[in-house]
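Table S2 (text version). Query chain:
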Amino acid sequence: MPDPTTPTPAPYPGPQQSSPPNPFENFPRTAPSGPLRVVVADDNPVVRAGLTVLLSGREDITVVAEAADGRAAWEAAHHHRPDVVLLDVRMPGVDGISALPYLVRIAPVLMLTYSRESEIVQEALRRGAGGYLVHGEFTADELVSAVRNIREGRAHFTPTAAGALLDQLRQRQGPSGGPLPEGLGGATAHTAGCPPPRSQPQENPYQSGGFGLDAFPSSAISSENLSQVQPDVGQSSSGWTGGRPAAVDRSRFQLSTREAEIMDLIASGMTNQQIAATCFISEKTVKNHINRIFAKLHSTSRAEAAAKWLGTAPGSARGLG
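Corresponding structure-token output:
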């Protein structure tokens, strides 16, 4: 007989049902990513201010510095280590093309410029630019999307820049590129039952407004001297003489700096809406500027004003450049 005073042992509880330890419990947690940090480089203070206001108005973007030339852009990028650099082409001192190879070592670079020449687009991409946007060819939302995507390695191009890329690709490959898999593209005109393609020179779609593939002599387009042959933005649509920009005597028109900027955009073919988006002003303000410009140029139409501004109107006085 067991001793009634001896306590009965508790039943075996069985295996514990607690969850296994978390192997990542002691790992540091990933800090939430901060806003996308941008450096804006443009010699036009109005453009810089407009871009800063536009980008800083987004919750996930902040402009950490502005720069008026390539050297200041490099110093700002070196100091702030931004996620993206917005870079103009034509700036005094060190231009954007010259600064580009040094900036891409620090952050992705998105070209944001009025310069639409094919040679400049191609050279910027060769030197490492992650995208190329021409003013007047994008909306504010498209610019914001491009800035966000450039950080992720997704390239962005406006139509003019995309056209320059296609032109470069066709010139390099000629009528036929390398061999394609699965025999693609191997059928001849005879076997395909089609007439042979015509080999006629195609009109260059970029040969307008003083910009074109022959705007620069081939000897001028090199890594060392590309920036030296670039005209100032204010004279970008003045025409060319011997591969160099020829100046027009515009002082007689007595336009203000803003009016001259808008007249340049009119001469490049922009609409009032595009000019307003480019200059970050309202269309009504653009119309007021245009009315004053027409009065000073004694013109009644955009075509007449542009002809006088570019020096192509009869009797226009063109400087020697």
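Notes on Table S2: The radius of gyration is 30 Å. The chain has eleven helices and eight strands.
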